[in-house]
Design a protein that fits this description.
The chain has 206 residues and is α/β, with parallel strands linked by helices. Helix content is 48%, strand content 16%. Strands 3-2-1-4-5 form a five-stranded mixed sheet.
Length: 206
């Protein structure tokens, strides 16, 4: 499994490609950042980000793309830029038909370090150890992108089993839902040229 991890950011978008399967040693294929100038027009920055991500997709041909899920922050301007960069990553992957997974920062930290409250230094140290690197990737956005890819490789088998179980449950419930409701017997109507006999009043002989 080859996964492109994307740590979205408008100024620095971390990207990292990891290959391997859960339970076995993983290999880093590439790592870096896609940068856009902070003083450029927003539209041009988004185009530059798209072009950078497309180059990574062309060069490394990942099978999956893992993107950090945007969460609320106190700095609205920062979260808006993160959301815009995330949308570009989703667009690039979806255009190629690549499956995209969103992972929260706490999910990634817990998967890589064992603690959802780990700081960036701890994440970088564990990424270095897991991928057998000489030094932590710099900047931290690059290390976070690798951590996203690692998280997805490790979580994907469990997620696939869950999705398959949900699909089986939905398939088993579908026939009962499509079963037609029981029909009431149609009321008999008198033949042409005849009239229905009125019901005799209760308590009196007919």
């Amino acid at each position: 499994m080859r996964v492109l991890g994307v740590d979205p950011g408008l100024t620095r978008c971390g990207v990292g490609v990891v290959e391997g399967v859960a339970g076995r040693p993983l290999t880093m294929i590439g790592v870096g950042v896609v940068r856009t100038p902070a003083d450029a027009d927003l539209g041009r920055r988004l185009v530059a980000l798209e072009e950078g991500l497309e180059q990574w997709l062309d060069e490394h041909r990942p099978e999956f793309v893992a993107v950090e899920r945007v969460f609320s922050q106190h700095n609205v301007r920062t979260v808006m830029g993160t959301a815009q960069a995330s949308a570009v990553a989703l667009l690039c992957a979806s255009r190629r038909g690549l499956p995209v997974a969103l992972h929260t920062p706490s999910e990634v930290k817990a998967a890589v370090t064992g603690s959802g409250r780990a700081d960036k230094a701890q994440v970088g140290a564990m990424v270095t150890r897991l991928l057998r690197l000489d030094a932590p990737p710099k900047p931290a956005d690059a290390a976070d992108a690798l951590a996203l890819a690692i998280c997805h490789i490790w979580r994907a088998p469990a997620q696939n089993r869950l999705q398959q179980a949900v699909a089986r449950h939905a398939g088993a419930a579908a026939p009962a839902e499509r079963r037609p409701a029981a029909r009431r017997p149609a009321a008999r109507t008198p033949a042409a040229g005849t009239t229905a006999a009125p019901n005799p009043p209760k308590g009196r002989p007919a």
